Amino acid sequence: MHLPTKRFSIILLVITGLLAIPLVAMQFTSEVNWSLSDFAIAGFLLFGTGITCEFSLQNIRKTTHRLVVCGGLLLLLCLIWLELAVGLFGSPISGS
């Protein structure tokens, strides 16, 4: 079993901070209205992407391959996030 690296701890702190933004915003405005499932889905997507990027950074040796894999993961995260938020492609997961 591997102990968490410093980079892994930073990833978790950044993701937790990102999830705290809508939580704090909900206290001050009614325009941000996230449910528990919204936080769960966002947390799953962000933590999953962060853990997968960390895993690929630990196991891939060439820098260019690392950049391609992490860039692809971030692009996939953005596409899924956009689909869930506004139904960019009109798929069934967007609710349309």
Description:
The chain is built from 3 helices and no strands. The protein has 96 residues and is an all-alpha fold. It has one domain. It is flat. The N and C termini lie far apart (43 Å). The model has no long low-confidence stretch (mean pLDDT 89).
Notable characteristics:
mainly alpha; 3 helices; about 75% helix; about 0% strand
At a glance:
With 96 residues, this protein is mainly alpha-helical.
Broad shape: flat
| Proportion of beta-strand residues | under 5%
Helix content: over 70%
The total strand number stands at 0
Report the sheet with the most strands, covering strand number, pairing sense and barrel closure: none
Number of helices: 3
Give the low-pLDDT segments.
Answer: none
Number of domains: 1
* Distance from first to last alpha carbon: 43 Å
Gyration radius, rounded = 16 Å
Order of helices and strands: HHH
Averaged pLDDT: 89
| SS content category | mainly alpha
Helix and strand layout, with pairings?
Layout: H1 6-28, H2 36-59, H3 63-86
